[in-house]
């Protein structure tokens, strides 16, 4: 199976611009949703896992609007990502799919599962879902993102990358340069600043307070599909105490915590993550 970037890249037109994605494998549909962060993309999140999952599933790695790959759309990146999932599924006539979501992608997956339960058959989240209970808010990783969003530099990128993993040896020069090049894309930085810039972040927090609308995590009892919450024990972006609320509220949820692992569970605990997730999805 050829799972290179060139062999798997695809594009589909929608009424709000082109959505780009990577496709591989046969079987039931599996959507892989990426997180936020500096120089992020779906391909960088999941390229190492695609071949394993494509042996069992028809995989789609969706690139969210506004991160420098799919066409940008106006609005909050988390909200536009949610609508992009349903647009994407409609365009490809995917009635229902299993979903894997990393960090922000997990939040997006939860929201799609709550609003359109018929579209999500099973859900796997990788960190990110729920509120901070015992840990500081914003977290160390989020503070480092804010510093970068307010004034980008290569040194700030390296500090953030090192906070994403347990083993700093994973922060290779190649990974640094790849992320730095992607972070210089205007649309990518625009989305990052809209989520993590100091002023934008403060405005979002105030807007949530003023709106009177309950936070999404307080309504996770509406997630009806079987859900696997995965977490790195040493996650400094989304500390594992966040898992307590979704584990309690989602009716059919289970939690797996990986030791000696940071935020990028699918990368840093690759083989163990793939084994646990495949068992859950194929069960």
TrEMBL record:
Question: Looking at the UniProt record for this protein, which Gene Ontology cellular component terms does it annotate, in alphabetical order?
Answer: membrane
Keywords of the record: Hydrolase
Q: Does the keyword Protease apply?
A: no
Q: Where is the AB hydrolase-1 domain?
A: 28-269
**InterPro entries xref list:** AB_hydrolase_1, AB_hydrolase_fold, AB_hydrolase_sf, Epox_hydrolase-like
Q: Which GO terms of the molecular function aspect are on file?
A: hydrolase activity
State the protein's name. Answer: Pimeloyl-ACP methyl ester carboxylesterase
Annotated organism of origin: Nocardia fluminea
Q: What is the lineage of its organism?
A: Bacteria, Bacillati, Actinomycetota, Actinomycetes, Mycobacteriales
């Amino acid at each position: 199976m050829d799972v290179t970037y060139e062999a798997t890249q695809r594009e589909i037109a929608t009424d709000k611009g082109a959505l780009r994605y990577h496709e591989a494998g046969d079987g039931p549909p599996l959507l892989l949703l990426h997180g936020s962060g500096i120089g992020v993309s779906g391909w960088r999140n999941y390229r190492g896992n695609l071949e394993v999952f494509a042996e069992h599933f028809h995989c789609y790695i969706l690139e969210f609007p506004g991160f420098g790959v799919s066409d940008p759309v106006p609005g909050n990146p988390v909200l536009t990502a949610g609508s992009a999932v349903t647009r994407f599924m409609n365009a490809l006539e995917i009635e229902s799919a299993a979903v894997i979501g990393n960090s922000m992608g997990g939040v997006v997956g939860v929201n799609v599962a709550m609003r359109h339960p018929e579209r999500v058959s099973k859900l796997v989240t990788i960190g990110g879902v729920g509120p901070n209970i015992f840990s500081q808010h914003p977290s160390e990783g989020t503070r480092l993102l804010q510093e970068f969003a307010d004034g980008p530099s290569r040194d700030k990128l390296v500090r953030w990358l090192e906070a994403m993993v347990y083993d700093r040896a994973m922060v290779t020069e190649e990974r640094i340069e790849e992320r730095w090049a992607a972070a210089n894309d205007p649309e990518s930085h625009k989305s990052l600043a809209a989520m993590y810039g100091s002023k934008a972040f403060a405005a979002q927090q105030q807007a949530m307070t003023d709106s009177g609308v309950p936070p999404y995590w307080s309504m996770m009892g509406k997630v009806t599909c079987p859900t696997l919450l995965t977490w790195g024990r040493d996650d400094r972006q989304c500390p594992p105490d966040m898992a307590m609320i979704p584990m309690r509220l989602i009716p059919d949820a289970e939690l797996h915590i990986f030791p000696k692992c940071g935020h990028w569970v699918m990368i840093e605990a690759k083989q163990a993550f793939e084994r646990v997730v495949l068992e859950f999805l194929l069960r």
